[in-house]
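The protein record filed here.
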Amino acid sequence: MSTTVDDELWTAVGDPTRRRMLDLLLVGGGTATTLSEHLPITRQAVAKHLGVLHRVGLVQVTTAGRERRYEVDEAQLARAVAQLSSVGAAWDARLRRIKGIAEAIERDRRD
């Protein structure tokens, strides 16, 4: 199975604050206000980060009155994990090839 890497998705999760927000949201969702209580940034900054996560589909938003509640979209998160696994496997294969080349060069030097 081949998974195409989604650059926007990785840009979104590349930020440590957004990864921390995802960790907090996985516990049970939250609002920008509740998340800001656990992060060293303002509620407005949290809202901007949530906007990025929402645009790439990692979080879903439900509105009740003036409150916007965010929850992790587990299907999209699973897609991100699959992409990471795919990228990791590709790099492992590259490193094995490089190691093989280096070992062949070293054998040729000894012979």
Observations:
- Strands lie at 59-64, 67-72.
- Residues 7-110 form a domain with the Arc Repressor Mutant, subunit A fold (CATH 1.10.10.10).
